[in-house]
Amino acid sequence: MDQYAGLDVSLEYTSVCIVDGSGRVLREAKVLSEPDALIGWFKDHGAPMARIGLEAGPLSQWLFADMEEAGLPVSLLETRYVRGALKAMTIKTDRKDAMSIAQLMRMGWFRPVHCKSLAAQEVRSLLTARKLLQSKRIDVEMSLRGVLRGFGLKVGVTTPRTFASRIRELTNSHDVLREIADAMLKVHEVMIKQCKNLENRIMRQSRNDKRVRLLMTTPGVGALTALTFVSAIDDVNRFSSSRMVGAHFGLTPRKYQSGETDVTGGISKVGDHGVRTALYEAANVILTRPVKSSELKSWAHGVAKRSGMKKAKVALARKLAVVLHKILKTGTAFSPTGSLRTASV
């Protein structure tokens, strides 16, 4: 009889449960959350597995890649599906989670997700680190403004170049505020410098990636948007149709139908938030700034007349997702008329 395994991964240990085709628990254990330890445990178990499932998470991609390379029939599971299935449990423990995941694998009630390549994970880490530094820099600036405002000192409008000098000017005659400002401005300066270093690295990577340069032929799509999209897609062939990409990134409407109730809501907002944001910003550029004549802009303006500018931007972001995936799949560049042409990038 076939055997199925479920893994509930934690930082130090992973709970493992094996069930047979009837759902009977055959074996349970706690194993170190290391690829070699898990691979060795399944080899020592002896019986081959029909399916092994683990929920997508911080350590899951690392474990999945090595276990798959070792020849184990492992699947990375969509987190929303697993959480939905486990929600009915009144008692939640790692052991029960592993048992439930094993049962999901036995019944086939799961949705596998793509495990990104190492290169795509590196790019995502770069983009995440840049965004983190950027947001913390803004936090420091807003905190400084708030501290000074309590003493009646208004910073006003500044630019990145004039912010530090304006703060020093305001705090020059106040010893305590000057000391606070000096400490925070030193951190602020380091954040600006390191963020710039990461941006330079991202720009170099964009210039060296043919796929990114292809996507940048599309109006409104810059290096950051293109690199974000490429790293999120990773393997272009995992989508059988380009039309699926908009839904994958949460840019299609929710639907609820039951009996006489039939409601179409806002976009689902599932999937990668960073990609969704990048596509929306690209759509905003196309609609609000001068760009080369394009059927994309004309189409979006038609949507705006019928449904408003906000919905037009979302609709254009969804269409951009489809167009960008098509560009990657065919290796062609975008043309101003809205069609694709053979690329020589």
Q: Can you walk me through this structure?
A:
The chain has helices spanning 35-45, 60-69, 79-86, 94-107, 118-149, 163-171, 175-207, 210-215, 223-233, 244-248, 273-288, 295-307, 309-330; strands spanning 3-9, 13-20, 25-32, 51-55, 74-77, 253-258, 261-267, 332-334, 340-342. With 345 residues, the chain is α/β, with parallel strands linked by helices. The protein folds into three domains: 3-107, Nucleotidyltransferase, domain 5 (2-Layer Sandwich); 118-207; 210-342, no CATH class. The chain is globular. β6 and β7 (261-267) form a beta hairpin. It is built from 13 helices and nine strands. The strands form three sheets. A five-stranded mixed sheet has the order 3-2-1-4-5. The protein has a two-stranded antiparallel ribbon with strand order 6-7.
Topology:
Elements: E1 3-9, E2 13-20, E3 25-32, H1 35-45, E4 51-55, H2 60-69, E5 74-77, H3 79-86, H4 94-107, H5 118-149, H6 163-171, H7 175-207, H8 210-215, H9 223-233, H10 244-248, E6 253-258, E7 261-267, H11 273-288, H12 295-307, H13 309-330, E8 332-334, E9 340-342
Parallel strand pairs: 1-4, 4-5
Antiparallel strand pairs: 1-2, 2-3, 6-7, 8-9
Helix pairs in contact: 1-2, 5-6, 5-7, 5-9, 6-7, 7-9, 9-11, 11-13, 12-13
